[in-house]
Amino acid sequence: MDALTVPAAWRERLERRGLAPLAGTSRRYALWIAFLCAVIAVGVFAYVRQVQEGLIVTGMRDRISWGVYIASFVFFIGISHAGTLLSAILRATKARWQLSVTRMAEFITVVALMVGALFPLIDLGRPDRILNVLLYGRWQSPLLWDVFAISTYLTGSTLYLYLPLIPDFALCRDRLGPSAPRWRRALFTVLALGWRGTPAQRRLLDRAITVMMIVIIPVAVSVHTVVSWIFAMSLRVPFNTTIFGPYFVAGAIFSGIAAIIVLMAVLRKLLHLEEWITRTQFVSLGYLMAAFTLIMGYANLNEYVTHGYKMEEGFVFHFDQLMTGPFMWPFWTYVVAGIALPGLLVLNPRTRTIPGITVAAVLVLVTMWIERYLIVVAGLRVPVMPYEPASYVPSWVEVAILAAAFALFALLISVFAKVFPVISVWEVAEHRGPEPGAPAAVEEPLPARRKILLGEAPS
Amino acid sequence: MRRAVAAAATLLVLALSAPSVVAAADPSRLALTAPATARFGETIGVGARLTDGQGAPISGARIVVVTPMRFLNGAGDAVLLDGRTDKDGSVAGEIAIRSTEPLALRARFGGDTQYDAAEAAARISVEGEAVALYEQHAGARVPMLNQAPGADGVSLAAGAGDGVLGRMRELWPALSGWPIAAALITVWSIFAFAVSLLFRIRSAGALP
Known about the structure:
CATH class of the largest domain in chain B: Mainly Beta
Number of domains of chain A: 1
Mean pLDDT of chain A: 88
Number of strands of chain B: 8
Oligomer: heterodimer
CATH architecture of the largest domain in chain B: Sandwich
Shape of chain B: elongated
Number of helices of chain A: 17
Radius of gyration of chain B: 35 Å
Number of domains of chain B: 2
Number of strands of chain A: 0
Structural class of chain B: alpha+beta
Low-confidence stretches of chain B: 153-160
CATH topology of chain A: Formate dehydrogenase/DMSO reductase fold
Strand content of chain B: 25-35%
Strand content of chain A: under 5%
CATH topology of the largest domain in chain B: Immunoglobulin-like
CATH superfamily of the largest domain in chain B: Immunoglobulins
Order of helices and strands of chain B: HEEEEEEEEHH
Distance between the termini of chain A: 39 Å
CATH architecture of chain A: Up-down Bundle
CATH class of chain A: Mainly Alpha
CATH superfamily of chain A: Formate dehydrogenase/DMSO reductase domain
Shape of chain A: globular
């Protein structure tokens, strides 16, 4: 890939803005981190209580044995597809508009996988027995396939996140001034792998990224397919469908795009990245999201029309509980606010704005969690024997742990944005260049300490 | 006329109120035959024979063979065999030994209008170590892909019983997941290749 020639002032502005968060910590940031830690602490307390007392402190019982934990597991694994879609698929198609947000997308992937993988462990009544999965696991079990798929995807995604970071680590190494903490300079020196941007290094890095780009796409698809098989391969009427694999993958990409849009909007505002994250990225991702509203709508229509037409024994109950029964409100909220409304917001030129697309993305994220909840809880509520359908209400322990998981997700993203450049500076500079019509970022004078950290003489 | 009616009524009352005469049921004998010992996992034959007091077979009688079972806080009899005797007075069936605990069997004939109820008991000692008795096979079995060579009528060329193929067959339960393992090895090898490129990047950046 040939590098572009860009104006030096523009590149300088990009590097300064990209590295600015690394150079100082605001009071607001410290308060935000403290808040997240407090939420996580409450979750840890709730989890300790769950370990002490057992799963009886949750709302789960024998008939509905999966609740918000597994719903959230599916949700987080779903949004982890963000990085794969944006970074790998769009990289493979040589799209350029996404280069300024690939870093965020790849990091969402790694963080979402780390948080999502915690949920099966939390869901275990005896977490000390987790090793039994590896010691006595059975090749025939989709649960074991899931363990392999997620660990493989996490490893691959971490590697895929790291590769394009190498030139930016070198940039951090070179631009952080001598007054920057020693540990940070040492960290960037190690992580930069002696990067000097030689042609040989560039060739090798390009090859490594290409290899990972090719392999990570099928791995990502396999992950969510296997997650869907946990349901589809069990003998439950609502899960008896062959559409679950592609349906889960589509839902994962759908929620993953929404997660990127939301994160883009937040970081763009907080880190003043308006010059590099423009309406172009929002609209392009918005169109992708709108396309997936159609796919999700079609998949749901196909699923419920075919089952609803046949009304086989067992499915009648499920159909009723979703359409007019106890899950009516969440189900129709998902259909209207999660599929119809986001599509309309993006397709309508008047709402196809950054705020409009962000609102659509928030709606998608919220309702996709609801959709995961419906699959798990409403699916398990269908009686498999002639007994009364059970009810499930999450206990405070589950709610606290769920809140802690979201806080952990936000914390990891926040720390990442503080320690590493959230924009792939070298890729934007070398392969994308300035966007015509994008407003130049207002140069805010950096405090003296930040200038020193960035290797400049304080004025 | 009045006398005749009175006599008829008296006869009717007597007929209705007369105690019914019940003949005493004949005694019956039930014999339960089962091996004294069985191996864990083995399927054994169990039989029962019902005869009358003179030893003549009783046919068409219902015999139930049960064993006491406990589960959580409940207890009861699990029915192992339920059938009617043939013309020889016999009923037979097979029982799979699924526990290393001694198996207590009880056969019962509930009795009928002709024969008294009868019971018989037997106890089977179980030998052998408790191991997994069955393996669930999910999905399609593709010979040589996820099914052992030579298994289920899939024969290989001569020599399947010994040599390399024979050894593979012995190892097959452990290898049954090899399609998954092969996919994992492929993907992780590509990861390893990408990591090896990292080392080369480092080398390529070394100053002369």
